[in-house]
Amino acid sequence: MNTSVNSGKCAGKFIKNNVNDIVSIAVFTIIIFFLGLCSFLKEDISFSENENRVLAQRPSMNLKTVFDGSFESDYEEYVSDQFAMRDLWIRLKTVSEMALQKKEVNGVYICRDNYLIEAHESVDTQEAYQNAEYMLEFINSTTGTLGKNHVYMMLVPTASAVLTDYLPAYADEFDQNALIDYIKSNAQDAFIDVRNELEAHKDEYIYYRTDHHWTSYGAYLAYVKWAKECGLDAYSEEDFDIETASESFLGSTFSKVNYAAQKDTLQIYNLKKTNRFGVSGYNVNINNGQLTTDTLYIRDYLDKKDKYSTFLGGNNPVVTIETLHESIEEGKADEEETEDSVLLVIKDSYAHSFVPFAVNHYDKTIMVDLRYLKQPIGQVIEENNVTDILVLYNAAGFAQDVYVQNVSFYK
Amino acid sequence: MVFSSLIFLFYFLPITLVLYYAAPVKYKNPVLFFASLIFYAWGEPVYVLLMLFSTVVDYTHGMLVDKYIRNNRKDRARMVVAASVVINLGLLCFFKYVPFLTQTINQVFSLHIKVPDLTLPIGISFYTFQTMSYTIDVYRQEAKVQKNIISFGTYVALFPQLIAGPIVQYKTIGEQLDNRRITIGDVSYGIRRLIIGLGKKVLLANNIGLMWESVQESFESAASFSALTAWLGAIAFTFQIYFDFSGYSDMAIGLGRMLGFRFNENFRYPYQSESIAQFWRRWHISLGTWFREYVYIPLGGNRVSTFKWVRNIAVVWALTGIWHGASWNFGVWGLYFGVLLIAEKVFFSDLLEKLPVFMRRMYTIILVVISWVIFAFDSLRSGVSYLGKMFANPVLCDDKAKFLIGNYVLLLIILAAGSTDIPARIAFKIKTQFGEKSISYIVLSNLFLAAVLILSIAYIVDASYNPFLYFRF
Fold this sequence. Notes:
The complex is a heterodimer. By secondary structure, chain A is α/β, with parallel strands linked by helices. Chain A has helices at residues 2-17, 19-41, 63-67, 70-81, 86-99, 125-146, 159-162, 176-187, 195-200, 216-230, 252-257, 327-336, 355-358, 377-383, 395-400; strands at 47-48, 53-54, 104-105, 108-110, 116-118, 151-156, 191-192, 240-249, 264-271, 279-286, 291-293, 318-325, 342-347, 364-368, 388-394. In chain A, strands 7-6-15-13-14-12-10-11 form an eight-stranded mixed beta sheet, sandwiched between helices. A three-stranded antiparallel beta sheet of chain A has the order 3-4-5. Chain B is mainly α. Chain B has helices at 6-22, 25-43, 48-70, 74-109, 124-139, 149-157, 159-162, 170-178, 184-221, 227-258, 276-282, 285-296, 306-323, 328-346, 349-354, 357-376, 380-391, 399-418, 422-434, 439-461. At the A-B interface, helix 2, helix 4 and helix 5 of A face helix 1, helix 9, helix 18 and helix 20 of B.
């Protein structure tokens, strides 16, 4: 009895004398054990929608991988990728960097008016101009076969080259305008310069705040310019029902910093039922039958993180769009037996919100992505009786895209 | 394994500590020894054998030295010490300098000897110095011989200081190896040091490292590179290496304390030194002590003729330089300090004393910043060209410099203050103001610790950049 009372007293005294030490140990132990257990018990996730990448899985262990050290490094990657509340930790890091007044976090400029603009600082200039050479040569030779006014190229400046007032002071950006000027001066009439159009509307919503793409409106402005240069009669905004498809879009620049003060609005331009050229519908075929649908907008993506993929289903090797016309037109076509117009778009994802406008002027449109295309581009042109070509990239992406050189194997 | 990794903080450390605290006294060293082997083998699954070899070598050599000393055969004991030194230095030289030497020989004599493809075993520069110190200390009768090979193995492999120091001399912890008590105060002190060190490394060093990296990129690529950018880069690296290495030492000292060991301090606010001599008494203290005790003083130290003293300084500083790595810039970096130390003592010690403290500090830090430029570039030519951009540059300022200042000004202020004793003084003031046992002090100090730990975890989870500079050595 006595001893237990005594030891009780002793324990009380011990705690009283060492409160600070006990609290420090408790703080450390609780944080480490709580997070450790959470991560340990949490089920592994295979894909991060937020980061848009496959997460590392538990690596298998054998003598070889243990001794060459690959098991150890794979395991560390696995622990990091599957750590509890991963997204929250990344956001915490961004917020603290912002508190430190850092204007650039993880390759994203944190700008006024809630813009998160992708930074392009360490672009290899030599590679950029090499890409320009590949593409100029391609344009030159295809112009030879398809004829003048049938091959065009558009290089779209990204937000960091247009919304320059928004960038942090003295940002050391890759000079997209110089690259555009260079290609323009060499491609001459084949180049469609949309800079003035974007510049004139830069106070409007032409780039997303949390994504590196242009908005549907930005793409529309470029479409009008393109149609004019090609001698086409562009649809006006009144020809569309403009639908706000989502008001909760958080795009790629958001994912890099996991922080956004304002979500983006994603608009869809639906061509009205009765329209000037009698377009009555579409047959969309993604990757030769992987997905066939009658709409340019894959609305399943509106419920996912990657909402920009609503436009023609995101990055795919080949997307074919047949544009249907009202039967009167068809009958007329049958009589005159005019050849089908086929547009080939060689592009990156900037084209996804542009092509829905362009398709209305062709019988068939084929979108190819050189990053994923297995076929030689020449074969695509031949097999589909391509009549027109549009090369459409964003300038910063074009400068860094190692697959641009694949056009040089076109013959 | 590195301390600033999730695998260490959330797997290795908690498991090891639970096993270690739960183990009865006689099993504590074995637990620590095997845990340390796993810690090392995680990053070096093969070279762990090399470390074990070095352990066995010095264990047996220590026993022999002790035997001969007790039998009054000092000559034989000396032979054994020499053998231990030859084996340890042989290992170190083979892995660290042979590739470099072959390359140099090939260059000088235009030969084509195959350059051996050796990767440097992690921490070899640290543990060979530690094991050597043991045998020498036993010979000098400054340390008792360790008869238990597990205890000795624990000393060599002890994971807190195994891969990046501090270089713990055997005599510092010889007693503690077999007889140590761990109080609650030790554990909490250790935790605090660990968290502070983690914060220094992950929050401060890594972030300013990004600035240095960005400056390096434009130095290598850009046509225009202003003097201000060059200075900002050099200052960034100066802070990076301090917070990186001293943060690592803090973590090592803290972890050691949690296990019941007391290591000596490795840094004492080196950037507020008032002379180069003082700088080297405050920077990487364990390395300076090692060279002083095992090289400088045996050579005669400063109690010899001026000529010999100059020679001693030159030898010690050339060795200190190349200890950091097998390339010319480290040799030049060491000799740079050797020359400065001689000049300081011979020519301007009187002059320095007449200067106000602020001027003395400026003098020291500027010379130190220059030294880090030499240190940072493996190629001497790049280093010299970088110095040229700092001192003889027609372009004083450019947009890059302005952008860097805009981005990093707050961090730079924090780093400048953080590398002096100001934070410690503030902490002390708060402590005395509130009273160490007051609720407000306890809440405040522990909230701070929790915040640093949580922020550090956030930075580790999203770590694209997390090198340890002293891993190369």
